[in-house]
Amino acid sequence: MPGVLCIRGTFAHTPHLGDLKILQDYLLVTDMSGVIIHFQPAQNPESQTVLQKSPPCVILPSGTLILPNFVDLHLHAAQFLYQGNGLDLPLMEWLNEYAFKAEERLDGDPRLARTVYTRLARRLIENGTGTVLLFGTIMEETNLILAEVMQAAGLRAFVGKLSMDISSRPSYKESSMETSYQAAQSFVEKCRALTANLPSHERLVEPVLTPRFVPTCSDSLLSALGKLSTTENLKIQSHLAEALDQVEYVRNERGADDMEVFDRSGLLTPRTIQAHCTFLDVPSLEHIHFCGTAIAHCPLSNSYFSAEPFRLREALDEGVKVGLGTDVAGGYSLDLMNSMRHAVSVSRMRQGSKQLRAGSDGKSLAIDWKESLYLATKGGATALGLATGVFGVGLPFDAQEVRLFDLSARMGVGALDFFDLEAGGSENAKTLTIDMIEKWWCLGDARNRVSMWVQGAKLDIFPL
Q1: Would you identify the CATH topology of the domain 6-68+391-458?
Q2: For 117, 203, 392, 455, which has the most beta carbons within 10 A of its beta carbon?
Q3: Burial classification of residue 35, based on how many CB atoms lie within 10 Å of its CB (0-12 exposed, 13-18 middle, 19 or more buried)
């Protein structure tokens, strides 16, 4: 449970795309529900008054800062079972050979499911992810285990029971549209019931409608889920225009692009998050923005399964809500810092290709590391309709404490090296600079993460 927090030190966040704010010597105080009630420079008269009345204040040591937690917009929880394996096939073959088998295995073994999901929660916390949008499996019980584990771990989790009445694996699908729809309804009710008796600020888990993607869902099922999302005010997640074989399959089977299929089913809404979208052109991105739908950009898995990179800069220019996803296990890394790095590198490759083809028109397709940090924090939160991802009065305190260097030892932490500090030049070390944070962005890892909070409650970071 959260309690009153009082923290003094350096904070950093990106309230707008590309706008990194480093707030030196700030005072942050929360109430009992984990909501920020004071956030001002510590030397302000009001802050000094708060310091006299607040509980003992934690003073961050030099070399340490508070950042928002990461938001992972796309992760297949059951596929964590084989993370780091099975990336050798095209998407539609990969699903049959790896994904469906793993999901079916967890659906048949509740004890294994709880073990896998518990380890997943611990790994997410270790890697600084405080909010996660999860694809589950088709069986209700397994998804309720996932929801229970995430709630117990203190993570802000959106859990989706898969809806799929079509499958290339006969043993892994729901028997009919009616069965699939009723199962989705039932899961929503039971998932909401898990936290119904808790105070509202402690209800961290929420059900999400999850038609896997167009190839596994009949038109009638998609339309029924679209109506359910409206009547129950439910978020929706799926995959859209992800890979060449998937796009061609939908065109051949449905006679339309999958974006059109989702749209006519009422599933492109301001509550919808669609993963990938690599085959969407600019007019399609304009339509996504018109619908208010968000996109989960998964650059690592796109490198394996898509013949096209996502048009990230164009999506941002069109005002589309975009965040980052790891797409485990289509992406092999659970660390969203790797998603940030890959997002930048892919965008720079796109810019390089543009220059080779047609020269530069002065408008770059690349993003920089500060923009990627926005996507990993505020961008993902905005996609989910959350007020997190930044620090401010009235907002939930979802944060991570990151240590860049140890001033007393004159050493960087983990993979970070600060040679001037080692040489004895500590006169400016109390002021964290943008260069220091960039070094962490490039080289940092779990060793730099000291603490994690969600809704003001401190999470256990287990050494694994």
Answers
A1: Urease, subunit C; domain 1 (2.30.40)
A2: 117
A3: middle
